[in-house]
């Protein structure tokens, strides 16, 4: 029988502990809300039981996917730390960042960069937290399938987030955010590519 005690949940979920995180962050990153699946990663034993492998096999709206690349895709986090919280995942079921090929690494980074541009457009994000929890000991909720968090931040967001996170409409909010972000993806990509041209030496 599954162990649903608080300690168990804390052990298997993304608490996203990073060095040098300010105090307000601790209140924001509440571990018990962060299990991507109800029973934690003990449920993810292989690709067949992995939600990050399953998501791309359904339509974007059902899976809350905002963008698909060649090797990686971007999906809304079902249990967001903040509205607009996204995850960048490789299609391949692999746990470790060094496992990515050069091409996968490039697209993984590019989708993260575009995701930031889009969040600036659609939600006026003032800052971001980016990162990966590597391995169960590193706090990964689903350690078996690599995923990078993109979390938009606003000044003082630690104060109102617990209220947002407790509302019953959070699923609808995620769906609305998915639509806004998916609709804004092309514009964000254009701006990203323009910046790339401007920043390329010799152009
Ligand atoms: Zn997977």
Automatic annotation (TrEMBL):
HIT domain residues are 51-160
Q: Which Gene3D superfamilies match?
A: HIT-like
UniProt keyword list? Nucleotide-binding
Pfam families named in the record:
HIT (PF01230)
The record's PROSITE patterns line, in alphabetical order, gives:
HIT_2
CDD domains attached to this UniProt entry: FHIT
Supply the InterPro entries for this chain: AP-4-A_phosphorylase, FHIT, HIT-like, HIT-like_sf
| Short motif Histidine triad motif, span | 145-149
Name recorded for this polypeptide: HIT domain-containing protein
Q: Which species expresses this protein natively?
A: Yaniella flava
């Amino acid at each position: 029988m599954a162990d649903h005690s608080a300690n168990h949940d804390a052990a298997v979920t993304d608490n996203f502990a990073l060095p040098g995180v300010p105090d307000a962050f601790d209140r924001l990153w509440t571990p018990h809300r962060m299990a991507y699946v109800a029973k934690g990663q003990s449920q993810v034993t292989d690709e067949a039981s992995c939600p990050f492998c399953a998501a791309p096999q359904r339509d974007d709206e059902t899976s809350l996917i905002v963008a698909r690349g060649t090797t990686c895709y971007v999906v809304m986090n079902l249990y967001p730390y903040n509205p607009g919280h996204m995850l960048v995942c490789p299609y391949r079921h692999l746990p470790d960042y060094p496992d990515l090929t050069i091409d996968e690494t490039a697209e993984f980074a590019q989708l993260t960069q575009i995701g930031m541009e889009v969040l600036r457009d659609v939600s006026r994000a003032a800052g971001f937290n980016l990162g990966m929890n590597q391995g169960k000991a590193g706090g990964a909720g689903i350690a078996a399938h690599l995923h990078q968090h993109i979390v938009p931040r606003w000044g003082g967001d630690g104060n109102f987030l617990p209220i947002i996170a407790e509302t019953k409409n959070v699923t609808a909010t995620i769906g609305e955010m998915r639509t806004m972000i998916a609709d804004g993806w092309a514009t964000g990509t254009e701006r990203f590519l323009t910046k790339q041209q401007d920043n390329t030496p010799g152009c």
